[in-house]
Design goal:
The complex is a heterodimer of chains A (about 55) and B (about 325). Chain A is α+β, with helices and mostly antiparallel strands and about 55 residues long. Chain A has one domain. Helix content of chain A is about 45%, strand content about 15%. Chain A is built from two helices and two strands. In chain A, strands 1-2 form a two-stranded antiparallel ribbon. Chain B has about 325 residues and is an all-alpha fold. Chain B has one domain: Ribonucleotide Reductase, subunit A, CATH 1.10.620.20. The radius of gyration of chain B is 21 Å and the shape is globular. The chains are: A alpha+beta (about 55), B mainly alpha (about 325). At the A-B interface, helix 2 of A face helix 12 and helix 14 of B.
């Protein structure tokens, strides 16, 4: 199972998946910067990540 | 006669076992000890040069936020102790270990802003800094529905005193409930929601104006620390709420007490020219929903609606300085 994270920005709801925590953090950083002109902290992402690393 | 070893068996004197060291809170302690940075290691010369060529409006907009941060960091450093005492009282040694880094980091943040103010804008004295501080009572809801409180300067002290009293009582349920309220206010609401727009404002504007790299780097370093603080508080509360679901209402109660601080942008956040304030309101909702997810509690949908409602906003009645 991949690691998953759901964006809670109002009106977004995108779910991102990656094989590892490092890849998930990078994908979330890209999404939050490109879609919301913002950032999300690594610890915040990891606190909400679900699923196991592959 | 009872020996001390019978009263306090030797085995109970060892707290750090492999299970604790495999847990998420110990991991935060480890990460904090790897991520140490020094306020005096940053190069402030480029910031001083930038400051000299910035406009008065730009300087005022930035200083209005940085003086709030300096005082706020000093306040939270000084008010953290009840959480540490409660962790001890609850026998959570991994929480005690992590909170030792938490307090050190808050002290470092205090130092960073004092150094930056001294070396860049030359704000040395409390009076120098107070001149950039618009008073909270100047922020007014024109519809009169919401009151903007002082969660840092009144709330932390009040909830800290309640937590200290609970620790003194030795009543585990009282300590847990007071811990949930204190940590929800400190870590989830103040650090995790209300302050977040100010970080973004400083990082956004210093990038847009291409100025103050040390200030921006300092904010990024602080944010790295804050990510651990926020998620420590929410994880610790989640553990306690899972143990006793009645604590969820206590978390909502303390957020509700300072609901007015989230429904609009505050006086010191409105001084930087050219900002899209709606963006920061949407982000507040994301941060609030993130905190509820981490806490394992149901978000208050009326609060979300109020933060996003364009009809609800504040005006700044009287400018300071």
């Amino acid at each position: 199972m991949a690691r998953r994270w759901e964006c809670l920005e109002p009106g977004c709801g995108v779910t991102l998946a990656a094989a590892s925590d490092d890849e998930l953090v990078a994908a979330v950083h890209d999404h939050v910067r490109e879609a919301h002109d913002s950032y999300e902290l690594e610890e915040i992402i990891l606190a909400a990540a679900e699923g196991d690393e592959e | 006669m009872t020996t001390f070893a019978e009263l306090r068996p030797v085995e109970t004197r060892f707290r750090l076992d492999p299970e604790l060291m495999a847990g998420p809170i110990y991991r935060k302690y480890e990460k904090a000890t790897r991520k140490v940075w020094g306020a005096k290691d940053l190069d402030y010369e480029p910031d001083a040069s930038d400051w000299a060529r910035m406009t008065d409006e730009q300087r005022s907009g930035i200083a209005t936020i940085t003086v709030r941060f300096e005082a706020g960091e000093q306040e939270v450093t000084d008010e953290l102790l009840p959480m540490l005492a409660a962790a001890h009282a609850l026998g959570r040694f991994d929480w005690v270990m992590y909170l030792s880094t938490f307090m050190l980091e808050e002290a470092r943040h205090s130092e960073f802003f004092a150094v930056w103010h001294a070396r860049v804008p030359g704000l040395m004295t409390p009076a120098d800094k107070a001149a950039y501080w618009p008073l909270r009572e100047h922020t007014v809801d024109p519809q009169g529905r919401f009151k903007v409180g002082e969660p840092v300067y009144e709330g932390l002290s009040a909830y800290g005193q309640r937590l200290s009293a609970a620790v003194a009582s030795g009543d585990e349920t009282a300590i847990e409930g007071a811990f949930v309220q204190f940590a929800t206010l400190y870590c989830a609401w103040i650090e995790g929601v209300l302050t977040m727009p100010s970080y973004e404002i400083v990082i956004d504007t210093t990038q847009l104006w291409d100025v103050l790299p040390a200030l921006r780097q300092g904010f990024r370093n602080i944010l790295g620390d804050e990510g651990r603080h926020i998620t420590f508080g929410t994880q610790a509360c989640r553990i306690l709420i899972a143990k006793n679901p009645a604590y969820e209402a206590l978390a909502h109660e303390v957020i509700d007490e300072y609901r007015g601080n989230a429904v609009g942008m505050l006086e010191y956040q409105r001084r930087v020219p050219g900002l899209d304030l709606d963006k920061y309101q949407r982000q507040k909702v994301r941060h609030y929903l993130n905190r509820c997810r981490e806490l394992g509690i149901t978000p208050d949908s009326t609060l979300v609606d109020q933060i996003l409602d364009p009809e609800i906003d504040f005006v700044v009645g009287v400018e300071a300085g």
